[in-house]
Amino acid sequence: MSSVAISEPVIDELRAIVGPTYVLTSKTARYNRTRVPAPFPVHRWSEFLPDIVVLPETTEQVSEVVKLANRLKIPVVPRAGGTGLADGAVPLRGGILVDIKRMDKILEIDLDNRTVTLQPGINMLKLNEEILKYGVFYPDDPASYPCSLVGGRIGTSGFSLIAGRYGHTRDLVISMQVVLPTGEIIEVGDGGGRKIRKSSTGFHLKHLFMGHQGTLGICTEATLELVPRPEAEFAAFFGYKDFESAYRSTGALTKSGLATLASVVLFDERKIQYLRRDDEAYIPQPRNLKSVIAVSMYGAVDEVKPAGRRLMQIAKDTGGKYLGDEVSQGDWASRHDRYATPLHGRLLDRRVVPMCWHCEDASINYSNIPNVMREWHEIADRYIKKYGIFDDWGCFFYTNAAYKPWGDYLSEIDIGIWEQKLNDKTWKAWVNCKREITEVTLKYNGSITACHGSTREGDAEYVPEEMGGGFEVMKRIKRVLDPNNIMNPGKNMLDNAYEED
Amino acid sequence: MSDDLQQKFVKKWLDNAYGCFSSGHKFCREVCPVMQVTRNENHSPTAFHANIVAMNNNGLTVADVAEDYVNCTLCGACELRCPNTLFTGDFYRNRTETVKVVKAMRALSVKSGVEQPNWKRWVEATIDKKSEPVLDVPIDQDRVADWAKELDLPIGGETILFCDCEAAFYRTSVPKATAMVLKRAGFKFGLMKEQWCCGGPAAEMGYVEQAREFAEHNLSDWRAVGAKRIITLDPHDYITFTEDYPAYFKNGYDMEIVHITELVAELIKEKKLRLKKPVKRVVTYHDPCRLNKRKGIYESPREILRSIPGLTFKDVDHVTQWSYCSGAGGGFAVERPQIAEEISRRRMSRAAELDVDILVSACVWSERPLTARGKELDSKIEVRDLMELVAEAAGLDYGGVKT
User: Which of A130, A145, B295, B398 is the most buried (most CB within 10 A)?
Assistant: First the structure.
């Protein structure tokens, strides 16, 4: 389908729905709701603009906007924080951009049943500031904790850095209200019941509406888990003589079975080289320190203290050298702010240039990590040499599964891209580089994306391959729920669902 | 002409803009006082930088973007919260500049003929009266020093107390209390022959040439009376004198600028000022954005509060206060009064959560809007200036407080 031009009468209808102040048509309103922090072909910015922006405040307004769009077959792109590292919130066909940031109210705090019900435009840090006084917190902790919003976390099925202990977004959202592509408002959970965590009634629809990247509707309310504020945090950084020993130690730590273990993060040798460029935390470390592991635990003092001692012993026995309280506590505390800094970018001749950041987020099994890492770096090196605008910022491997942090890892190769030099040729080179990285992931039976979503060029093309027969089911579901393909069209190869027509 | 100006502007700020654009993470957004209220991405610091990239290679013009840059109180929180500043800033000697960008864009807008109606009126009235058109109060240059009538203060000398427009014409209790405190401590100072507006608000609204005329008048007045040192009682003046004036006059500007909280904290420490009268009130402190976020002055006001006997001081960390603002700065309230009002309402509700009966500020511009919002609360929180409280603790009767 193609977008109809949004005519003046349509704009008037939108104004009637959300109020004239909250329908935006200016160039800046549209330009600033186009890109996300993922690599972006800035030279083609104007190709990705929405036609119009609305800022609704209520579920009913969202529903009316969607009904209007469905009637007129106008694309709708939902946008929360716009902090994603893939292109879920980037409009591909223009249309109406539904920016949910004004939907940021806390609706109910239920301390008896440990839930908070809210609108999805709220940020997790802000939420936790509000509920601090009750001794509870909402433990969804991505690197973007200070800026991403609950709605985006749901739309992407986000990854939490402390999920080994508390679970990811999908585990922490108990139920939600969703506006379907035809405008109906429904509630989905495991079964029914806004505050029920486990059910065998019907289909488990919550999972269908988790991580669909805005292709199946718009979340307008969510009921979230509240957990007791932990009494104790244990954070430890260990240094190793090489990647091999750090990798083996990671296996031992994650398989320790300690219930308070929240995360283990493995830094490869290229990551340490990258950090040594300028990160003061690592400069004082001896040169023979080549690889690092960060470990965190949360819980009651009685649990965390002895478990921390056990972890220290395991790390020591497997070749780890504790890097001290200052590095451990300081670096763990600043885990959000280190999210990425364009100032670290270097060209081959070591010249510093500001670079944007590609953050690969494949899910890879433990046993395949060494091969995947090696092959990814080889790909990156080839493109760096050939094009002179890329940079390899090393790899992180984060424990990936909720509550059972051992079998697979969010595997991240970080690649810097000198955005100011992007043109058709270099953008194509980047997409090819990305495709090669993705192919390695699939070769080793991994998943393309642990948390950002398969919406980027270089990822999306591989969705049918990764999903196999499941992709046919995805297409059927998409057609049934969104007969006119208005919801975030062009994403996840779901346009294929309409090809038979 | 306008194209040339725009090109020059883009060239100057493009690298700074890319530093933000290439990161794109928007850590600034949730600390931005305007964004917290409007939730409109156009008003985010990230957008202020992205627009410059779009002006560079996607054909946006100053006319397309000018209005968005109204939505900023110039509080500086975004710069502090920027990961580029926080974590690699020292190493690369880099600071994400957003306040300067907003001011420069406002100046470019005015020069390009894109003006905001209320700012235009405000600056015209300031030029006419030589002091700011402080709302609802008649402004007359003959009355600029009326607050000091009974204090017998000299004109001139090495040290001059500069009294802000809002303080001179509206909350006169602040300069009066300040002057009495300094006299009590035996600190010698005088007033200007004729004080004009510092010019800071005009500069913040984009009227740089007009702002410079005020600066020239004030500097020549200071020189004429032999001043070497200027005491500011308003944080906005402190910014103007330490950032704008040096930019206007370069090496020809050799005034020492001292902010009142720094001076009074010193006088207390040196035991030149003794605070003996207990003030039995429960207070919290509002970190004025320009002191805390832009100048790193957050210790001296707290030292002063802790030295007042009888006071119960419920402090909120100055980093937590990065996301607080009264809404009064950067000309914002003149163009967007309703949003500014909501910003001050939220600030007061934060104070109300602490069960205090006074919110102490050290910024006279914040005190009028915060006072109004404090009256709306069930708990009726009063707003006092730090110097008013100091005067009270020093046993000085400085007269009535405008509420």
Answer: B398
**Would you give the end-to-end CA distance of chain B in angstroms?**
48
Q: Which residues of B touch A278 (CB under 8 A)?
A: 88, 91-92
B323–chain A nearest CA distance, Å: 11
Do residues B326 and B235 touch, judged by C-beta distance below 8 A?
no
With beta carbons less than 8 A apart as the criterion, state whether B23 and A342 touch.
yes
Cβ–Cβ of A31/B23 closer than 8 Å?
Answer: no
Residue with tokens 């509420």: B403
**A275 CB within 8 Å of a chain B CB:** no
Task: Give the closest-approach CA distance of B59 to chain A in angstroms.
Answer: 10
**Whether B356 contacts B283, CB under 8 Å:** yes
The yes/no answer on whether domain A106-228 falls in CATH 3.30.465.10 is: yes
| Mean pLDDT for chain A overall | 95
Quick one: tokens of A357? Answer: 């950041």
Closest CA of chain B from A102, distance in Å: 5
Interface ipTM above 0.90: yes
State the average pLDDT over residues A411-429.
95
User: Token match 């040798």: residue?
Assistant: A269
- Please tell me which of the candidates A82, A340, A342 has its beta carbon nearest to residue B41: A82
What number of other Cβ atoms are within 10 A of residue B91's Cβ? 15
Write the burial class of residue A39 (CB in 10 Å: 0-12 exposed, 13-18 middle, 19+ buried): buried
Higher per-residue confidence, A285 vs A66: A66
**Is A391 touching B (CB cutoff 8 A)?**
no
* A47 in B contact zone (CB under 8 Å): no
**Cβ distance of B30 and A355 shorter than 8 Å:** no
Angstroms from A201 CA to nearest CA on chain B: 38
Could you tell me the domains of chain B?
A: 2-111 (no CATH), 117-266 (3.40.50.1860), 274-393 (3.40.50.11810)
Higher per-residue pLDDT: B10 or A351? B10
CATH number for the segment(s) A8-99: 3.30.43.10
Strands A362-365 and A227-228: unpaired
Residue A216 has what DSSP assignment? S
The fold of the A340-456 domain, in CATH, is GMP Synthetase; Chain A, domain 3 (3.30.300)
Strand partners, A410: A363, A398
Q: Concatenated DSSP letters for A279-305?
A: -TTTTTS-TT--EEEEEEEEE-HHHHH
Please provide residue A491's backbone torsions phi and psi, each rounded to the nearest 5 degrees. Answer: -95, 150
Question: Which pTM value belongs to this model?
Answer: 0.95
B346 vs A contacts (CB less than 8 Å): none
**Set of chain A residues whose Cβ sits within 8 Å of the Cβ of B58:** 31, 45-46
A27 in B contact zone (CB under 8 Å): yes
Q: Do A342 and B19 touch (CB under 8 A)?
A: yes
pLDDT mean for each 10 residues of chain B (403 residues): 88 94 91 97 97 93 97 96 78 84 98 97 95 88 93 97 96 97 98 96 97 97 97 98 97 95 98 98 98 98 98 97 95 96 97 96 97 91 97 94 75
